[in-house]
């Protein structure tokens, strides 16, 4: 069982909370949108904290220090970077994952020390290229681009690769 903090997001947070809980993980959500907090609390049996996840004080009061992972899902790349850096540097959270709107930020975020920066746009681009290049029959996005069609940059490789599943990053963290 891992302890995972999900910061920001709406529909993606809802889905991810369900998936992680179904896998037996403990999940806590932090969200700046009060209505979203009420929604998440009504749908899931988890702690939900209303507050700005880019503020260290909010993250500390949420009690996520020492969690196994943080997932930043806000619509702002800058906010997601701040959330992950706070989690790593001040809250002793070894696994930091975030979504990025601008695919060019994937490499930058990895060089700044985040565990994974995930770009749905880059995944879609790769899937389109693969589909066009495919001559072996129907293209299956789920098989070729991974769960959720999301990409991350592997440490030290400098290239984007499709993840088998975002949750595989959580499984790798257990072995670290």
What does it look like?
The protein is of the alpha/beta class. 44% of the residues lie in helices and 19% in strands. The protein has eight helices and eight strands, in the order βαβαβαβαβαβααββα. The chain has helices at residues 11-22, 34-43, 56-62, 77-90, 105-111, 120-133, 141-145, 166-174, and strands at residues 3-7, 26-31, 47-50, 69-72, 95-99, 116-118, 151-153, 160-162. The strands form two sheets. Strands 3-2-1-4-5-6 form a six-stranded parallel beta sheet, with helices on both faces. Strands 7-8 form a two-stranded antiparallel ribbon. The longest helix has 14 residues, at 77-90. The radius of gyration is 16 Å and the shape is globular. The relative contact order is 0.13. The model is unreliable at 142-176 (pLDDT under 50).
What's the quick description here?
This protein is an alpha/beta fold.
Which descriptors would you attach to this protein?
alpha/beta, two-stranded antiparallel sheet, globular, disordered C terminus
- What is the total tally of β strands? 8
| Average pLDDT reading | 83
> How many whole angstroms does the radius of gyration measure?
16 Å
- Determine the fraction of residues in helical runs and give it as a percent range: 40-55%
Q: How many helical stretches?
A: 8
Class from helix and strand fractions: alpha/beta
Strand order of the largest sheet: 3-2-1-4-5-6
Query: What is the overall silhouette?
Result: globular
What's the story with the biggest beta sheet?
6 strands, parallel
Strand content: 15-25%
State the order of secondary-structure elements, H for helix, E for strand.
EHEHEHEHEHEHHEEH
Q: How far apart lie the N and C ends?
A: 14 Å
Low-confidence stretches: 142-176
Q: What's the quaternary structure here?
A: single chain
């Amino acid at each position: 069982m891992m302890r995972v903090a999900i910061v920001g997001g709406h529909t993606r947070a809802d889905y991810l909370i369900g998936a992680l809980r179904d896998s037996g993980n403990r999940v806590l959500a932090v969200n700046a949108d009060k209505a979203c907090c009420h929604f998440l609390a009504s749908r899931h049996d988890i702690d939900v904290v209303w507050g700005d996840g880019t503020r260290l004080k909010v993250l500390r009061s949420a009690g996520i220090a020492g969690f196994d992972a943080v997932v930043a899902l806000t619509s702002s790349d800058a906010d997601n970077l701040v959330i992950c850096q706070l989690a790593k540097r001040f809250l002793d959270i070894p696994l930091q994952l975030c979504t990025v709107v601008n695919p060019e930020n994937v490499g930058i975020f990895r060089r700044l020390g985040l565990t994974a920066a995930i770009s749905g746009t880059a995944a879609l681009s790769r899937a389109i290229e693969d589909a066009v290049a495919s001559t072996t029959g129907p293209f299956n996005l789920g098989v070729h681009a991974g769960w959720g069609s999301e990409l991350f940059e592997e440490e030290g490789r400098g290239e984007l690769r499709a993840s088998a599943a975002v949750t595989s990053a959580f499984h790798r963290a257990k072995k670290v």
